[in-house]
Amino acid sequence: MGRLSTLFGPERVAVIGASESEGSVGRAITENLLASYEGEVLAVNPNAEEVLGLTCYDGIAEVDSPGTVDVAVVVVPPHIAVDAIRQSGEVGIENVVVITAGFGETGSDGAARERELREVAEEYDLNLVGPNSLGVMSTPKGLNATFGNEMATEGDVSFMSQSGAFVTAVLDWAAERDVGFKDIVSLGNKAILDEGDFVAEWGEDPDTDVILGYLEDIDDGEEFIRTAREVTQDTPIVLVKSGRTDAGASAAASHTGAMAGSERAYEAGLEQAGTLRVESVQELFDYAQILSGQPLPDGEEIAIVTNAGGPGVMTTDAVGDSDLSLAEFTDETFETLRETMPEAANIYNPVDIIGDAPAERFESALETVLADENVSMAVVVACPTAVLSFEELAEVVVEQQQQSGLPVATTLMGGKSVGAGQEILAQAGIPQYFDPARAVGSLDALTEYRNISEREFQAPDTFDVDRERAREVLQGASRRDTNRLGVEAMELLDAYGIPTPQGDVVDSPGDAEAIAEEIGEDVVMKIVSPDILHKSDIGGVEVGVPPEEVRDTYEDLVVRARNYQSDATILGVQVQEMVDLETGTETILGMNRDPQFGPLLLFGLGGIFVEVLEDTTVRVAPVSEPEASAMLDDIESAPLLQGARGREPVDRAALVETVQRLSQLVTDFPAIVELDINPLVATPDGVTAVDLRLTLDQEEL
Amino acid sequence: MGRLSTLFGPERVAVIGASESEGSVGRAITENLLASYEGEVLAVNPNAEEVLGLTCYDGIAEVDSPGTVDVAVVVVPPHIAVDAIRQSGEVGIENVVVITAGFGETGSDGAARERELREVAEEYDLNLVGPNSLGVMSTPKGLNATFGNEMATEGDVSFMSQSGAFVTAVLDWAAERDVGFKDIVSLGNKAILDEGDFVAEWGEDPDTDVILGYLEDIDDGEEFIRTAREVTQDTPIVLVKSGRTDAGASAAASHTGAMAGSERAYEAGLEQAGTLRVESVQELFDYAQILSGQPLPDGEEIAIVTNAGGPGVMTTDAVGDSDLSLAEFTDETFETLRETMPEAANIYNPVDIIGDAPAERFESALETVLADENVSMAVVVACPTAVLSFEELAEVVVEQQQQSGLPVATTLMGGKSVGAGQEILAQAGIPQYFDPARAVGSLDALTEYRNISEREFQAPDTFDVDRERAREVLQGASRRDTNRLGVEAMELLDAYGIPTPQGDVVDSPGDAEAIAEEIGEDVVMKIVSPDILHKSDIGGVEVGVPPEEVRDTYEDLVVRARNYQSDATILGVQVQEMVDLETGTETILGMNRDPQFGPLLLFGLGGIFVEVLEDTTVRVAPVSEPEASAMLDDIESAPLLQGARGREPVDRAALVETVQRLSQLVTDFPAIVELDINPLVATPDGVTAVDLRLTLDQEEL
After folding, report:
1. 425-444 in A: which are within 8 Å (CB) of B?
2. Per the CB < 8 Å rule, is B173 touching A346?
3. Which of A120, B74, B189, B565 has its CB surrounded by the most CB atoms within 10 Å?
């Protein structure tokens, strides 16, 4: 068990601000605690003698052995809440649940109060939930330290929510369904404990099989990825991260002051963390149900057994939309089906055992297909008929599922006929929907989690680089008091083993000529100046310059730059070997920093692919080799790297390594705020970074 | 009312094959008819005296005034069914519902029987449903001529299904919900009446407000588009067309023998027909509910009113995912909200009237936002709280919806608390879901239908073309006994006013030189032979030939062709002006014929866009000007036509006209089975068809 085990499984809970006053939050919490909690409840309120039959203490320090109180629930008004928390810390209470609102969510006074609260909590190393939380719940001990109307029923799903109202909604909804919970926490303002802490806690909790979350932001994306990666090896995490859309993000900002990181960073980060991200509340609970009720499949192959052709086709379409595939049966299965099913049945997948099928025929067909080595899971689709009892059908489905150990979902296509059948299936953890798309979607999610749980999180490779030289390049720029660097910083890439064209930035015609002679063929020459962004536009670039013309060209470039802006800082001229853009494929490799997730790498093909088709992919750095490799396949235009239209494929290994080396560079130097290698030319024989732009944050150097 | 009005509203119905035998279909139908049908039921069965209290007749001709029987329901075995249908026709019955199975769905004998049935039906001009149908239902007269277990409740939705089992499923499901129907038909094998007939019928039926369908194929796509286009001006059509995916299509083929047209043709055709195509059963009924219950909005702007921040953010995300947009309130609205809402409320959209809001506050906020001229619709999102009665909330929502005349959907986020509120909302036709994404999705569908109902179906333009010359080109090819034509058929395009490069196909060096001199600059020369597909590979193309070298080049090209294949048919050499591929944008414009929808036009950008990114769009021809124009915008790479990256935009009008002219050509000549103009080069000044390939079906000439 994790360090929050006493938060969810306390022996003693004190309510600071317990009250009898009708309609008060202090009363609601005390009542809820008294209703089902197995441990001891203590009431603290200096203005009352007794609350709901409990002796009232003047302060937390007054209670008998205050250090053995496991959780203090704070409900007092905001101006005295911080004091109450401090007192709790002083007497040695480890867990504090702050229900009180009026902190960071209410403007600058509240924000100051929240800073104070955070300092106190840190001073006493408190596990603090909230402030502005609905509270916490844990079913094994009947703990309901919330001011909601409902207590959860026991189950193996733990749930965290950045919206207290959503917790009440879910509990109200769950009360008439077979949805049980282990722990529930309303995160509130997340002053101390946040999503990462609860994920870590529930990852170690043997009674939590599935973690659900509703989040509007993630406080520390990098830490969340680290934690969730490990947890999701054994325990699935299903999240609604709202504020996905621009409109949603600005609504979230005004709701909780959630600072909107980029949606692309969340998308990449949550995927890298191994979470299943869903877009609707319906999916959140559909996924929770199947993940907690069914075993993981050992493959993607699904068998469909139905008594109705049309719904069988709909189900097959749903399979086509998913990452699952229709199982191809073995000859043995066909033989058995041929022997046991009526002649008019369709023994091919989807198996249509036709309209006069009673439950026994479903049983026989299911047993046959679930025994097939090519079948990893099954969906049963049944329409109501005169000869079929949904109740009997449910029983045979449960039996066959349990006997085979494979996951099964059902579509009993009816309403009033479904009744008892639904109950039997729910008891056995088998999902049941009217719409076959939902049944298939659930099995698809189960399979997606299987893939996550099996993926091996490889550590990012560490290449042998010249970190010192890179630091010098950045510090050099810093001394020139500039934040925007261009090709003059190509040495940075060189230091990290990213291939750059032969050449250098020089500050005299003579040096330019020397470099050109070293290169020994026509060169490219570019003016280097932080003040000139669009070099080509002012004639600052010359291509194909023969060595003998390099001196004159140097002078020309400088004159043009001066003509454009007389006081421009001219760092010199870049003399570079020519890169054959014709045979190479132009790619772009970049990075910017996300406020929540840190360095975000971007990869795509250059030109129209980035600018018009916006065909790029992102990952949170540092990336491992498989992650870097996946970036190359993620873009729509990936076939162009793989040798589409008769071209030779580019040097994939070199490209993947370059992504990893850039990942290492931006991870090593937080001072690099933004960076673009554009183009990074990829050929069958390697890659070359042809141009570079980056932005520095000097304070981080 | 349409010609099927007596099918759905008969005075007299005869059951041919009525029976008392337990578990028989003849009994089920007779019982169902006797249960609720207001008209007269007649029983025909030569082997019985009486069935369920009805006198039995030996044959349909024996009944009293057989010509006044409106519907004959045929349940007799397949080998005598056709005879029963013929007798029905002979006595003057107009409508026949064939329940009997054992026709086209069961192999070659059945197919022969179905052909016979079709001949008889056509001879007597019967409105024939089926065979292999579950039957028909119509609630106004209580008509249940099916062998299912449930009778529909009355409503304004009419429903057709190519799966009888799905009808039974939907009725069972609807029985415990507030879902009512006007007519229901199980289409069966669609020997005579098909989806197009029912769409036409219900389009004229004042009691049908929404048409729903489950289809596995469409018999005559072109006719369906024509009919549905008109109907959807006033009556929405919502369809599940299954067999969308490859897997689904092959399952559909094995289920009903549905001949799979291409999914792309269905996608385009159903969109051009103005139908709302949905992918799941859930959407089918969600859309039906809102379309039948709520008025159409006058815009896309939605207001969100909620008592809970988090769910408000989720709802905003759903809006972001949809084609709707968050309404921006007028200053007046802000002022009113500021005055009437508590200070802690968020008066910006989504409007958060906070957790202590009773129903009255919802009422006041709703009234304010629905009165805002910038608001076209609203969604109410409520979490359960101690101070809010969902029942009262439902009442104020209904009142405000009705008062404003704007569409409203709701998300009462709860389960057991929702109860009575749900009922009140359903009575008023207001959708209510736990998941805000479904509420928003429904309003989005309503808006999509509003756009469909407002779109003006423009007739395709008819250009002044030289049809006779085009026919001669095609017949010329036919005389040469070839089905595959290339550039030698460019005259075909010319005849239809599609610009082609200056030049011609000639069969002597002298003529070649004459053409080149006429062009007056360097030319392109290509060998023309139906036997040589890849001309470039054998040296059959020369680019940039100066006029003085044209004679020699002609000879060279012929020699190379002979060397490649000594007996190749050589039609001559094409001498063509050079088209500047550098400044132009290569597009591709093609056509193939779909078995259901006929000529399908395809447009896209050439090269990698077609081959690697598969970025193309299709439409069923003939296309109107707006449809042709939409094709240009549909592709991902559309910005490249519009002048992305500093290029001049191509001549859009010329490109649109070319699409329309090709549409006219392929509509005029069914003999053209396939055609590709690739490339069709588009420049800022016009378009030029540079190369052509087409395939002929000589029998159609």
Report:
1. 434-438
2. no
3. B74
- Provide the 10 A C-beta neighbour count for residue A241: 25
How many CA atoms lie less than 13 Å away from B495 in the CB half-sphere?
18
- Asked if B165 and B30 count as a contact pair (C-beta separation under 8 A), the reply is no
pLDDT surpassing 80 at residue B2: no
Do the chains contact at B414 and A316, CB–CB below 8 Å? no
Q: Which of A173, A611, A639 minimises the CB distance to B414?
A: A173
Give me the pLDDT at residue A1, please: 58
Give pLDDT tens digits for B629-666. Answer: 999 999 999 999 998 777 789 999 999 999 999 999 99
- In the three-class reduction of DSSP (H, G, I as helix; E, B as strand; rest coil), residue A432 is classed as strand
A vs B: CB pairs below 8 A: 261
Output the pLDDT for position B479: 77
Token pair for residue B24? Answer: 């028989």
CB B317 within 8 A of CB A244: yes
Nearest CB neighbour to B317, from listed A169, A244, A608: A244
For the entire predicted model, the pTM comes to 0.92
Of B414, B608, B644, the CB nearest to A172: B414
Backbone angles phi, psi at B526, to 5 degrees: -135, 140
Residues B336-365 as b or e (16 or more Cβ within 10 Å = b): bbeeebeeebbbebbbbbbbebbbebbbbb
Interface check for A260 against chain B (CB to CB < 8 A): the answer is: no
Residue B259 confidence (pLDDT) above 60: no
End-to-end Cα, chain B, rounded Å: 41
State whether residue B536 sits within 8 Å of chain A by CB. Answer: no
Task: Mark yes or no for CB contact A279/B149 under 8 Å.
Answer: no
Cα–Cα distance between A272 and A601 in angstroms, integer?
Answer: 13
Residues of B within 8 A of A309 (CB-CB) are: 163, 165, 255-256
Disruptive mutation site among A167, A317, A380 for chain B (greatest number of B CBs within 10 Å): A317
pLDDT tens-place string over residues A212-271: 999 999 989 999 999 999 999 999 999 999 988 888 887 777 765 555 468 899 999 999
| Per-residue pLDDT at B251 | 78
Domains of chain A in sequence order? 5-291 (3.40.50.261), 301-426 (3.40.50.261), 502-578 (3.30.1490.20), 585-700 (3.30.470.20)
Q: What is the residue-averaged pLDDT of chain A?
A: 92
Q: Distance between CA A165 and CA B414 in Å, rounded?
A: 11
ipTM for this model? 0.90
Residues 617-676 of B with CB under 8 A from A: 636-637, 639-640, 644-645
What one-character-per-residue DSSP string does A226-291 give? Answer: HHHHHHTTTS-EEEEE---SHHHHHHHHHHH------HHHHHHHHHHTT-EEESSHHHHHHHHHHH
The whole-number pLDDT of residue A261 equals: 60
> What is the per-residue pLDDT across B602-628, written as a single tens digit (0 to 9) for each?
999 988 888 888 899 999 999 999 999
Residue B242 neighbours by CB under 8 Å, 6+ apart: A310, A313, A314, A317, B214, B215, B216, B248, B252
- Residues of chain A found within 8 Å of residue B246, distances taken between Cβ atoms: 320
**Cβ–Cβ gap B355/A316 under 8 Å:** no
A616 touching B (Cβ < 8 Å): no
Out of B321, B383, B644, closest to residue A168 by CB:
B383
Written as six digits, the tokens of A357 are 């099928």
Beta carbons of B3 and B127 less than 8 angstroms apart: yes
- Contacts of residue B316 in chain A, CB cutoff 8 Å? 245, 247-248, 251
Nearest Cβ partner of A248 from B175, B251, B313?
Answer: B313
Confidence class of residue A94 from pLDDT cuts 50, 70 and 90?
Answer: very high
The whole-angstrom separation of Cα A625 and Cα A652 is 12
* CA quadruple B74, B80, B84, B89: dihedral sign: positive
